[in-house]
Each structure stands twice: as C-alpha cells, then as structure tokens.
Write a structure and sequence with these properties.
Strand order of the largest sheet: 1-2-3
Number of helices: 5
Order of helices and strands: HEEEHHHH
Distance between the termini: 50 Å
Largest sheet: 3 strands, antiparallel
Number of strands: 3
Helix content: 40-55%
Length: about 140
C-alpha cells in the first residue's frame, strides 16, 4: 500500500521551487563558519555556512542541501532570516518553530531538527574561534 502524497503549504512549495541563497562561499572566504548535519545515505544532509562581519553579525548565509521539499524550504527560509542578525540572536532560533510556521506535517519535522543541528554546529565553530565572550 502506497503512502498518500504529502500536501505542502504554498510557502514550502515556493521556497522549494525557488530556493534563496543556495550554494557555498568560495574556498577561503573570510569569516565563514560551517555547520553540517545528517547523511546523504540516510536521506537528508545539510551544510550551512554563515559569513560574519567583525561584530558577529551575519552578512550572508549559504547552504547546500540534499533532502525532501521540506528540508530545502527550511534551509531557504532560515537563510533569509539569519541575514543581519547577531550570533546571540541566532542561538534562539528553533527549527521546530520554523516547521510550524511553514505548516509542515509531523512526519517532516525531523528536517527542522536536522537544520537546527547544522546551525548549532556552525555556532559552535564561532565559539571556538571567537575571542568574544559567549552567552
């Protein structure tokens, strides 16, 4: 018996068809933090890159993703939300809140947790390389 197809919201469909900020920074780009989560062989993989200015504010966000439309849409939405934010603000962003905003069904919420893991991995690199006090 085949599973019923998942109905995605218009916002998910739009970000899946027209993903924002997809790609990677050139090798050696300054002030870039990278976080990875997931494994392609398990169906989802995310590489998230944040380029920061001297004050720890996100100038640009890029990502490379392998996964379902929900995973792509989550990465696209997050990449737009991070621009201009301080690292301390980013720590408060939750993947499940984004999933809820996009109207993702419970079966696709694991993608939001994976995105959160990638973001936290990038922020951990900031903690290791920054001379600033971490919150």
């Amino acid at each position: 018996m085949a599973a019923a197809p998942i109905e995605y919201s218009e916002m998910v469909q739009e970000h899946f068809r027209n993903p924002r900020n997809n790609g990677a920074f050139p090798t050696g780009a300054p002030q870039v933090l990278e976080g990875r989560a997931g494994e392609r062989r398990q169906g989802r993989e995310i590489s998230l890159e944040l380029q920061l200015d001297e004050e720890g504010r996100v100038m640009e966000c890029r990502y490379q993703v392998y996964g379902c439309p929900a995973t792509v849409a989550l990465c696209s939405v997050l990449s737009e939300r991070l621009k201009g934010r301080q690292v301390a603000e980013i720590r408060e962003i939750g993947g499940l809140a984004l999933a809820e905003e996009l109207g993702l069904p419970p079966a696709k919420r694991a993608a939001a947790l994976l995105l959160e893991d990638a973001l936290q991995a990038a922020l951990a690199r900031y903690n290791m390389t920054s001379r600033r006090q971490t919150a």
